[in-house]
Every structure is written in structure tokens, then in C-alpha cells.
Write a structure and sequence with these properties.
5 helices; about 150 residues; two-stranded antiparallel sheet; 2 domains; Rossmann fold; alpha/beta
Length: about 150
């Protein structure tokens, strides 16, 4: 999705990975706290059309160490808009994993003092993955495979 133009209505990208068709719909503004409800529902309808026949996986992307009230609002809206059972389809994707240094991601998640993040991880069945923004070479190439492994286990 990097490099694709952003839009209020969502951006769609398609591809194939290991023989599997993948479609990603980026919803840049619908979960913003400032989004008006009527506008938000219209945008979500557009994103449903883009993702047909899905969505099958909802990625909640958050920067490591920065799960805030804004993210909590996004989680609440996922439940309101997609139904409470949607949490069975959520994978939390942490960016900036390099900020952990040598600490494993599962240790960070287990030891975080962020109560809202702990609840989210529990509600989505402990499905999460971390990506290093600074990754290069082989490490960069393997990151999507790690995310897809989490997605495949849904």
C-alpha cells in the first residue's frame, strides 16, 4: 500500500502472495475520532464495496508503544460498525518493532502497562504481529510472511 494515493474513501490494492489472491483496503479516515457518524458510515459502505466478498481480516495498525485513546475509539467503532463478533477477525499490527531492541514482541504485550491494549489483545484472540519500519534485505522480505502466517491462523 505504500506509495498509493490516500483518499477519504479508502484505497484498494490487489496482489498475489504464494499463490493466494490478496486484496487490501486502506481506510484512512473512517476511525478518526473527529469523523462524523453519517460521513463515517458512508465511507465504510464504500470500503465494503471495495473489499467484496470480504472483509475477512481487519488489521488494526498501531505504532508500538503508542496505543492511545484514539486507538480505543477505533476499536469501539470496529465493534459498532462491523458487529462485536468482528473481533474474531482482528489482527493487531504493531509498527516500529525495532523500538523493542532485543525484547520479543510477546514479552512486550505480556508486560505492557496499557490496560486498553491488554483488553484488545485478549478480545482478538491474542492475534498480533510486529513490523520493523527500518528492516532491510531478507528481514524486510520475511515480514509480510510473518503477518500472513498470523492471518492464515484465523
Amino acid at each position: 500500500m505504500e506509495g498509493l494515493p490516500k483518499s477519504r474513501y479508502g484505497t484498494k490494492a490487489e496482489g498475489t502472495k504464494n499463490g493466494r489472491d490478496i486484496l487490501v483496503v486502506d481506510t484512512p479516515s473512517i476511525f478518526e475520532t473527529k469523523a462524523q457518524d453519517q460521513e463515517m458510515y458512508k465511507d465504510i459502505g464504500h470500503c465494503y464495496v471495495l473489499s467484496a466478498p470480504g472483509p475477512h481480516v481487519l488489521l488494526l495498525v498501531t505504532q508500538l508503544g503508542c496505543f492511545t485513546a484514539r486507538n480505543t475509539v477505533a476499536v469501539r467503532r470496529v465493534k459498532e460498525v462491523f458487529w462485536a463478533g468482528a473481533m474474531r477477525h482482528v489482527v493487531v499490527l504493531f509498527t516500529h518493532k525495532e523500538d523493542l531492541g532485543d525484547m520479543p514482541l510477546n514479552e512486550y504485550v505480556a508486560k505492557t502497562g496499557n490496560f486498553s491494549l491488554k483488553i484488545l489483545v485478549q478480545e482478538c484472540g491474542k492475534r498480533y504481529c510486529g513490523l520493523k519500519n527500518q528492516a532491510t534485505g531478507e528481514e524486510q522480505r520475511k515480514q509480510p510472511e510473518k503477518l500472513m502466517a498470523v492471518v492464515e491462523n484465523l
